[in-house]
Design brief:
The chain has 459 residues and is an alpha+beta fold. The chain is built from ten helices and 25 strands. The chain folds into three domains: 220 residues, Thrombin, subunit H (Beta Barrel), CATH 2.40.10.120; 87 residues, Pdz3 Domain, CATH 2.30.42.10; 92 residues, Roll (Pdz3 Domain), CATH 2.30.42.
Amino acid sequence: MSRRMNWVATLVAFFTLAAAFAGVAEAQPLPNSRDALQFSYAPLVKKVSPAVVNIYTATTTRAPQRRLPFPFPGMPQDGGNRVQNSLGSGVLVKADGLIVTNAHVVRGADEIRVVLSDRREYDAKLVTQDDRYDLALLRIDGAGEKFPFLELRDSDSIEVGDIVLAIGNPFGLSQTVTHGIVSAVARSTGGVNDSSFFVQTDAAINPGNSGGALVSLDGRLIGINTAIYSQTGGSVGIGFATPSNIVSRIIEIGTSGGRLVRPWLGISMQSVTAELATALSLPRPVGLVVKDVFAGGPGERAGIKRNDVIVALREQPIDDEASMRFRLATLSVGETVPIKVIRAGKEVTLQLPLSAPPENPPREKSVLEGRQPLSGATVVNLSPAVAEEMGLIEWKPGVAVVEVKGGSYAARFIRQGDMVIAINGQEVKSVADLKKRIEAGVSSMSIAREGMVSTIQFR
């Protein structure tokens, strides 16, 4: 009896499920033609691909001198000049022939050749190059011709899961299109460029794609393909594109002959860790906590206080130092923008005036020489202006290394971007201070690099 009841229950469930599916089928009928089944990116590709170009560069280098034990008569002993060729991609962003690409695609090139999607070729001239953001502007002359170009889309308008196309010149295969989704919209990854802030995608990006377009389905540019994460050299589905909001600023500043300058906040900050979140009574680690507010700076004028936690700038979330660097790079000096902080558990919105970083104290640029550990290093006083140039998010008095001569004694211990913070355990606050301590003899030296401090002992 029990088995029969189970069979009846199963039969009832089957007909109930069949009826449900019938309802779904009636609401969403199956495709009844080939046209109904067709889905293609072809119309979008036809629209945007003419604005994506291939870039070929040639760089002449001096080959190292060869020393052959038994040279043949007439064989030159030096290597002579060699031409190194490389390839990349670019995007037309103005009808007059203005092209944006990565700085590393054209860095040091003696010749730059641009090939359009219809195979026309042009010599290109470098307009500007910003190595900090790994972006460059080129221009081709079409003798008055209007070139196809891509409009830029606000990169803050895209979301994780949006479908995107990547178009470029991988491995020299000429124009190639791949598709994927946006995997992250605010990915912080160091060592690529100064902003360290990218749109991440799983669209296949390979060597040669650098400088190419990442395009949304409305046919607008949302990023310049810049780097990949790979252990093989090929795509593993983790690609990074410089957001269009940074590209827009480079176009705006670069075409006028200027340089992108991040506004100065006049405060020092650090990321909120789990321990800090607990100490500040925050529900979770978020934002940047203010450590110091410098007198007379924009932060003080806005009313920012020590221990405030900055969580948003112009309504955009601030999660770490990379996001703050990026947001500041998209803003202009002279603007006043809302900044949101958490103070004593409550959200407070302040109005922050954006100022250019001052060069105070003066640099006092000096080349250190003599028989001492820093011989061959060029140092300057650290000011807000120098800190901005070096890509530092905060500033405090000290001495920065801006150049190290190759093969020098200093090159054994320090590198460009280091901070000399102490000699013989005594704090160094200026170049004059550093020189004074060096003259007295150096037994130890403390160096700050990428947030870490190391002390070197000398005998």
